[in-house]
Amino acid sequence: MISATGVSFSYGSGDVLDHVDLQVRHGEVLGLVGPNGSGKSTLLRVLYGSLAPHAGRVLVDHADLKDLNAREVAQAVSVVVQETPGDFPLLVSDMVLLGRTPHHSGLGRHNARDEQAAARALERVGMLGRADHGFDRLSGGERQRVLIARALAHEAPHMLLDEPTNHLDIRYQHQVLDLVRGLARTDRHAIAIVLHDLNLAATYCDRLLLLHQGRIVAYGSPSDVLTPENLEPVYQVQVRRLEVDDGVHLVFTPSFSPLPPLSA
Fold this sequence. Notes:
By secondary structure, the chain is α/β, with parallel strands linked by helices. It has nine helices and twelve strands. It is 32% helix and 29% strand. The protein has a six-stranded mixed beta sheet, with helices on both faces. It is globular, with a radius of gyration of 19 Å. The two termini are 31 Å apart.
């Protein structure tokens, strides 16, 4: 489990995160949602140690993140970030083998165990047949699956993803998120994922944390978080909520007059 307690962070004088508490539990997907600039990606970076909180602390399975070295963090937490270049001149197999780096010291060579872990990861994401293809020749959805395979090759119990559906068409969005949910269900990964699409978040996440201007607006099940009362002041759009067989579906209508602000 990854837990954050009282986490605050700022760039200069502006607060980006303000006393955020959360838990990323094994076997579930926690979605981080909120408008642009709400602090989602910054929070994710704090959770894997790329940024150090100015207040509060982050624990990874009861160990304080600040007490772990970079290799220990990488062995415990795998990360899929945004905007990996599509023209990366590597074979798919070599890209996934990069995920084994935390298991070696110095410039240690890959061994049979590494190759087996990479092959298992590629098979899990349905890309084993593309192992000898160039990463730069893959479609956007295929690249995302390879990047998830690279994270899987870490064999870390926690996975953090920053908008893995960015720039993907609808088919690949659902394909990638169904894969992520399967990792939580089957492998008991603890997964936190930044998403912009609230309907995707409602479909694939077990719990949601809604951020606005660095503060938590709501935290709980999709049904509890995705309400017009929570969403309209944050997104400044009118929200109609539909109850469907598999959960919640939201319909948004642009609002050209200010909606009520968040209460203090």
